Amino acid sequence: MCIANGGYAKCILENKDEEIPGINGVLYYSPQILEKAGVSVLLSNMGISSTSSSLLISALTTVFMLPCIALAMNLMDITGRRSLLLYTIPILILSLIALVFSSIVNKGSVFNATVSATGIVVYTSIFVMAFGVIPNILCSEIFSTRVHGLCITICSLAYWIGNIVVTYSTPLLLTSIGLAGLFGIYVIGCIISWIFIFLKVPKTKGMPLEVI
Description:
Layout: H1 8-16, H2 23-28, H3 30-36, H4 50-79, H5 81-104, H6 109-129, H7 134-141, H8 148-176, H9 178-200
């Protein structure tokens, strides 16, 4: 289906879309991002340093992701892959906009830190519910057996290229354009991803592989 409706370029775009929202940049550099966002003020009364506060909140963010993955396993077959992506990406956009807001509007250190920490927790938790797992599942479903191996290889290559680009660009962007600019780029990435999924990603709920 992928080959018939757009060639190998569609295979690349479908998996590259997983990286556009910048999840690896947030996951790999969450302690630095949280420290830059000033979340240390939330735990300052406990005598915890800025670096330790960032690491602790980053660890808690990872803990919150685990039940979300379990929830995704149940929702995936109930709502369908495409619907789950379309429903969760707007939440990603709102959480990123909140992070941009907390970076450019000063409403007090405690308020800004709370918004930043909440935004990152929501962003990472919602991401793993859909965007983190569904693209790889879809790529294994929508290709015919004749080209299945080649297309999966192309998808994996696109994923790792996107991974490398996001991973190595995040610290450079943090230094050059700051948190607001970085998260603003990720907002645009999420919007592009939603449009691509709405227009190009097929429904696969309840359909046997032969039909897909």
